[in-house]
């Protein structure tokens, strides 16, 4: 058994936030039906390089970006702009447990695929809409993109080097607003499924990238709300913990993350200055935060005497949290990452297998399985429409001739 193997998800989303949510549901065992436009499909199929290549023709195939968020799903192609396509999707929604979509505000109403329409034919339906700004408020009609949301939601204001070091606001190297919205959407859907078990009724879920980005400012948001002062960019430093940043070594940088005064004493003892642990400027975390400008250069002068391997080994022996700043290739070469099995290979109809990254969800009784890779465009159209709607070969051929599927 898998945790959600009795749940059917109709996935009308594309790009990242929605597909990330539905990939989580697929990892947990849900049957996810990914609906794509005939002949085009999810935009991310073309977001490369790098691309896969057709092993027979050498032609460009799906992009790595698409592979990252679509494991475990079945793809069908349906033109929802046609009446026949709309009927197919309504019939599928009538049998589904969950619909996930990320169209602009009201974008699906004209097709009869909005929550108000679908809930009438399936009162148990859980319908999750993902937009940039939500269903209400002055920005609701706007399109929302991760980069815009990272800026508008405050993340970029606290990411990047300090002003005095020539820094500018920076976005994260991963589309975090999209990813986090996908995760929160997954949580909301699981909560709604549990509620349905008790009430028998579905419900509507309004997810907004901006809401998620503001919520996940976390301590930085509360720093402002409590103090009235807007937090600023700290580079790799921490606003409230010192030392907690990257330090230069002979061959790169090492992160040192001192969480308490005992760890600080161990750090400075290793660096040859145990007296710093009793220096009134540095005896407590609060004092170290106040005197950050004095302490950090002292530490940097000592860490430069070590190589990365030497300093990490020495600090690990003393129980001081530390680690390298790895490039992505070094991440997958790390022995712990390998021991945890974070790099996976999943089946693929065209390629045989393709690389993937393991889900971090580790359930003892209903584990994630990796028996289905990302689908080809429309790979499962006939299979799903036969299975879910009982369409026969002649009906499928007719729909295909009309360009509906």
From TrEMBL:
The keyword Manganese does not apply. The keyword Transferase applies. GO terms for molecular function: transferase activity. Pfam families: CoA_transf_3. It comes from the Bacteria. Keywords: Transferase. This is CaiB/BaiF CoA transferase family protein.
């Amino acid at each position: 058994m898998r945790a959600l193997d009795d749940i059917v998800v109709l996935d009308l989303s594309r790009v990242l936030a929605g597909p990330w949510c539905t990939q989580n549901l697929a990892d947990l065992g849900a049957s996810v039906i990914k609906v794509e436009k005939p002949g085009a499909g999810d935009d991310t199929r073309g977001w490369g390089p790098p691309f896969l290549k057709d092993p027979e023709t050498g032609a460009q195939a799906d992009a790595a970006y698409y592979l990252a968020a679509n494991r475990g799903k079945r793809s069908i192609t349906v033109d929802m702009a046609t009446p026949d396509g709309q009927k197919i999707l309504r019939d599928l929604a009538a049998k589904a447990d969950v619909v996930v979509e990320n169209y602009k505000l009201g974008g699906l109403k004209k097709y009869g695929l909005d929550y108000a329409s679908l809930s009438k034919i399936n009162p148990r339906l859980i319908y999750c809409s993902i937009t940039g700004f939500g269903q209400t408020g002055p920005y609701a009609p706007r399109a929302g993109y991760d980069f815009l949301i990272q800026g508008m939601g405050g993340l970029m204001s606290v990411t990047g080097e300090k002003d005095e070091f020539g820094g500018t606001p920076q976005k994260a190297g991963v589309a975090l607003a999209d990813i986090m919205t996908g995760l929160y959407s997954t949580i909301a859907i699981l909560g709604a499924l549990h509620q349905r078990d008790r009430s028998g009724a579905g419900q509507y879920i309004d997810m907004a990238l901006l809401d998620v980005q503001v919520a996940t400012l976390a301590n930085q948001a509360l720093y402002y709300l409590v103090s009235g002062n807007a937090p600023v960019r700290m580079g790799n430093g921490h606003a409230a913990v010192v030392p907690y940043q990257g330090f230069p070594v002979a061959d790169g940088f090492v992160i040192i993350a001192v969480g308490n005064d005992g760890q600080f004493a161990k750090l400075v003892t290793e660096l040859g200055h145990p007296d710093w642990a009793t220096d009134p400027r540095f005896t407590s975390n609060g004092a170290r935060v106040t005197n950050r400008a004095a302490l950090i250069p002292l530490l940097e002068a000592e860490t430069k005497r070590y190589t990365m391997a030497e300093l990490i080994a020495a600090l690990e022996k003393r129980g001081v949290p530390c680690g390298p700043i790895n490039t992505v290739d070094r991440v997958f070469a790390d022995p712990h990452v390998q021991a945890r099995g974070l790099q996976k290979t999943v089946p693929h109809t065209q390629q045989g297998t393709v690389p993937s990254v393991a889900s971090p969800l580790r359930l003892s009784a209903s584990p994630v399985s990796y028996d289905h890779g990302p689908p080809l465009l429309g790979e499962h159209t006939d299979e799903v429409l036969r299975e879910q709607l009982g369409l026969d070969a002649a009906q499928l051929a007719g729909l295909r001739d009309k360009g509906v599927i």
